[in-house]
TrEMBL record:
Family recorded in the similarity comment: Belongs to the sirtuin family. Class III subfamily.
SUPFAM superfamilies: DHS-like NAD/FAD-binding domain
PROSITE patterns listed in its UniProt record: SIRTUIN (PS50305)
Catalytic activity: N(6)-succinyl-L-lysyl-[protein] + NAD(+) + H2O = 2''-O-succinyl-ADP-D-ribose + nicotinamide + L-lysyl-[protein]; N(6)-acetyl-L-lysyl-[protein] + NAD(+) + H2O = 2''-O-acetyl-ADP-D-ribose + nicotinamide + L-lysyl-[protein]
Function according to Swiss-Prot or TrEMBL: NAD-dependent lysine deacetylase and desuccinylase that specifically removes acetyl and succinyl groups on target proteins. Modulates the activities of several proteins which are inactive in their acylated form.
Annotated binding of Zn(2+), by residue: 117, 120, 136, 139
Cofactors required: Zn(2+)
GO CC terms in record: cytoplasm
GO molecular function, a single term: zinc ion binding
Localization of this protein: Cytoplasm
Active site location: 109
Protein name (record): NAD-dependent protein deacylase
Amino acid sequence: MNDERSIMILTGAGISAESGLATFRGPGGLWEGHRVEDICTPGALAADPALVHRFYDLRRAALADVAPNAAHQALARLDAGWPGALLIVTQNVDDLHERAGAKRLLHMHGELRSALCAACGDRVSWCDPLPPGAPCGACREPALRPDIVFFGEMPYHMERIEEALSRCDLFVSIGTSGAVYPAAGFVQLARHYGAETLELNLEPSAGSDWFAESRFGPASALVPAWVD
Ligand code: BV8
């Protein structure tokens, strides 16, 4: 591709699958028999903080054993070389887009390598296990929690995301099941604003019918072929 259209890209767990990070709703998508919808809630954090902290500690630790794949690397190349507006919005909380070199990137569901103070809202980079009750460096309250958007919580950066959706000429969805809102509704918004829509996924997502074009296969093949 070599024009200056405005591009918005949404990614989900499927783009990191070939790097070795499990997806949520595919085979083996349960974690210790739990569904992410049951763990990833403010209620679960309040009822069993050790379980929720352990869920994120294990996933944070796993980052050391994985690397960006050809799909992350292709998006980073596109980001570096695209003269027009471009925004990668990821639902993923891993750091593989950054490690591939992506710059114009927003994490709408938070990040594993960040801790959030539930008392004062301060954020701090965090790479180690995060025990429940860890003290906040800013307000000293024992209120550090995973910097993750739980179900029922407002995703991050929504104003910037909605602005980008209203202006994009092309909306591309990569490796997401279309099971979680508001991300799953972005394709409808993009179409409403007149954008072209493309889905790159292993299989049809829940929102496949909303896409003008869908290509099915592994992201590590589809994304470089689309970018290059
Ligand atoms: C909110 C945390 C409102 C991080 C997650 C309508 C409108 C708005 C909200 C709702 C609504 N209906 C229902 C809701 C509520 C809810 C929701 O959507 N529930 C669902 C279950 C119905 N949404 C929310 O609660 C959201 N908040 O709306 O707030 C609000 C307003 C005002 C004030 C306060 C609040 C918050 C949602 C965020 C929840 N957090 N996770 C983490 O733990 O990782 S969600 C979780 O699902 C992950 O973030 C994940 O990213 C996300 C989506 O999953 P996918 O990434 O798509 O992964 P999945 O496994 O499902 O699919 C993988 C896909 O990849 C598959 O299609 C597969 O085929 C494909 N694939 C696999 N391998 C490959 C591949 N593709 C290519 N190549 C491969 N190799």
